[in-house]
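User: I've been trying to design a sequence by hand for this structure and keep getting stuck. Would you show me what you'd pick, starting by listing the structure so we're on the same page?

Assistant: Good idea, let's start from the same input. This is the structure you sent:
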């Protein structure tokens, strides 16, 4: 309750500029707008509201509408005569709209194409403090506090010059004696807009006036940035759209050199023909002209019917997982778990000295072996040797290793092991009807368990078919006729695959000299995979565009949550970090589009179900 009440309370800051105070207030008026700020200087008050709509499809510009409104009521007046309503915007209102638009438009983040409306309205005018610089400051503050992706605060001031002294935001009366009327807008770092006139001032005086005005702008921008940290909303970057990485570089590599020659052609018709050829060359190189006939793909899937044998095997596996291991006073049999110790020797020398980094082949104390289970992960002779032995028994076991055995020191050799058994345990799986067994599974009856197992097997088969269809669609696309690929994208993708291969090998403990030995071969494989990925990406993006596949907010949230869980990170923290990283967010968005496109292709394709008796198509 306290937090909600705090959000509804008005928040304000007061900034002193040029000996005059400017107050910014939010949270009191127009709370349903994405951002709203009331600005006051003296008795002049303005309200600025910023509203963001949905991202518009097939729009490659910023659809920003800026309105500035002055009503007679703000000065305590009403229209007289026959016409009582105020008509179209006045010339001053239109020019002030342009003043607001010019410094604000370039400050939106790249990739932002949402429909945006910015309205600044004069609520009260005292006839003293002029509204133009206040309007720009109010619009900037509304955008800064909103979730609209606005890069940083901007501010504006009017600079006058009276009797050789610069005056920041002079009053209307002071402007009558001023020889300078300069409106400046900019950020803390630079000036974005200059408009005004002067009465025969020198260049140095104009430069000094700009510097004086920028100092005042810096103060306002710094205060607005601090205010944003306190009451500003988190920026919404979900709808940002970016060009694929490396695309601009790839376009430049194709057209830069011929373009330099083309623009120097004097004759217009020849020049236009040359430019047209260059544009066509870029399209032929980078665009996929024809999509594969993906609607005619024929995909083979496995039957999803669940047999009784499959249910029985699954039930046996569940019983095995909940088996008990009871100590027995008898000789071990196949399937028992035996606690034992062993030590091997080769040609009179301990294997533990020959292979100190591989103790499973040399010396083990109190290790467990499943009697008769040759896994290939250790010494199979030990697993066989413990059969028939009881606790306290000792014997000698001979292990013959194959000539092509992975451990070179043991390949083709015979090792003698001294084996001792300490304990024998019998594995007992519970009966299917056992009440405790069913209770541990939170199941009331055997029939319910069988039904649940059947559903799980059916779901698993469905998922296997989904993956099978994805692989077939991917292969079908890669098998289509090749076309020119953007080499910059191929190079970057190949490098990413290669670096990932190196990192994976390092994590797995592969030695540096072994990595260096395979470097050339791995790079060739990475190049092949990089070409395949770029081709697949271009084709899928074209199909996604044709089928109007889009990414919803729910898709992004689910994908980000899954990735956070895979990384074992807090989903909320991970999503917050993701929204601040444009490249990662854009990559995730592309992955979602391609995944949804594969699903769409699977829906449009024919399916052929294979079984023992034959094949069915539907």
């Amino acid at each position: 309750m306290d937090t909600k009440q705090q959000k509804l309370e008005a928040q304000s800051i007061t900034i002193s500029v040029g000996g005059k105070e400017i107050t910014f207030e939010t949270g009191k008026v127009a709370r349903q707008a994405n951002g709203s700020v009331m600005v006051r200087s003296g008795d002049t008050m303005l309200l600025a509201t910023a509203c963001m709509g949905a991202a518009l499809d097939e729009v490659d510009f910023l659809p920003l509408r800026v309105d500035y409104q002055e009503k007679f009521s703000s000065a305590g007046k009403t229209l007289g005569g026959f016409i009582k309503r105020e008509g179209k915007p006045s010339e001053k209102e239109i020019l002030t709209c342009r003043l607001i638009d010019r410094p604000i438009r370039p400050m939106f983040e790249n990739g932002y194409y949402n429909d945006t409306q910015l309205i600044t309205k004069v609520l009260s005018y005292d006839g003293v403090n002029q509204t133009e610089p206040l309007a720009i400051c109010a619009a900037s503050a509304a955008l800064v506090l909103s979730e609209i992706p606005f890069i940083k605060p901007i501010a504006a001031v009017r600079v006058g010059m009276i009797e050789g002294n610069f005056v920041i935001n002079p009053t209307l009366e002071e402007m009558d004696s001023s020889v300078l009327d300069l409106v400046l807008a900019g950020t803390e770092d630079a000036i974005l807009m200059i408009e005004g006139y002067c009465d025969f001032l020198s260049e140095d005086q104009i430069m000094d006036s700009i510097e004086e005005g920028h100092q005042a702008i810096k103060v306002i921008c710094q205060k607005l940035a601090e205010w944003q940290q306190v009451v500003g909303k988190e920026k919404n970057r979900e709808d940002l759209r970016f060009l694929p990485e490396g695309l601009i570089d790839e376009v430049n590599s194709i057209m830069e050199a011929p373009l330099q020659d083309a623009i120097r052609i004097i004759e217009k018709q020849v020049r236009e023909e040359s430019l047209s050829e260059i544009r066509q060359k870029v399209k032929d190189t980078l665009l996929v002209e024809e999509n594969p006939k993906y609607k005619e793909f024929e995909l083979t899937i496995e039957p999803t019917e669940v047999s009784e044998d499959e249910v029985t095997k699954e039930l046996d596996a569940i019983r095995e997982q909940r088996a008990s291991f009871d100590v027995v006073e008898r000789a071990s049999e196949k399937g028992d778990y035996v606690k034992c110790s062993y030590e091997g020797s080769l040609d009179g020398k301990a294997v533990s000295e020959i292979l100190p980094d591989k103790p499973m082949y040399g010396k083990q104390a109190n290790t467990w072996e499943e009697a008769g289970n040759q896994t290939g992960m250790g010494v199979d002779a030990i697993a066989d040797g413990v059969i028939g032995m009881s606790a306290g028994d000792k014997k000698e076991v001979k292990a013959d290793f194959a000539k092509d055995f992975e451990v070179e020191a043991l390949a083709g050799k015979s090792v003698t092991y001294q084996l001792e058994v300490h304990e024998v345990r019998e594995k007992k799986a519970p009966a299917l009807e056992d009440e405790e067994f069913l209770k541990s599974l939170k199941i009331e009856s055997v029939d319910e368990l069988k039904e649940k197992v059947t559903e799980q097997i059916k779901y698993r088969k469905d998922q296997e078919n989904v993956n099978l269809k994805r692989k077939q669609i991917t292969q079908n696309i890669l098998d289509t006729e090749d076309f020119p690929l953007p080499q910059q994208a191929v190079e970057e993708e190949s490098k990413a695959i290669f670096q990932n291969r190196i990192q994976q090998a390092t994590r797995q403990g592969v030695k540096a000299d072994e990595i260096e030995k395979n470097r050339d071969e791995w790079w060739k494989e990475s190049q092949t995979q990089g070409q395949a990925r770029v081709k697949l990406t271009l084709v899928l993006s074209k199909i996604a565009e044709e089928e109007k596949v889009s990414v919803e907010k729910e898709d992004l949230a689910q994908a980000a949550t899954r990735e956070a869980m895979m990384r074992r990170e807090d989903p909320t923290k991970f999503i917050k970090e993701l929204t601040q990283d444009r490249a990662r967010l854009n990559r995730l968005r592309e992955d979602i589009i391609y995944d949804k496109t594969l699903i769409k292709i699977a829906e449009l394709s024919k399916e052929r179900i294979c079984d023992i008796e034959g094949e069915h198509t539907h």
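That's my pick for every position. To get oriented when you compare it with your attempt: The CA atoms of residues 162 and 174 lie 8 Å apart. The first strand starts at residue 11 and ends at 17.
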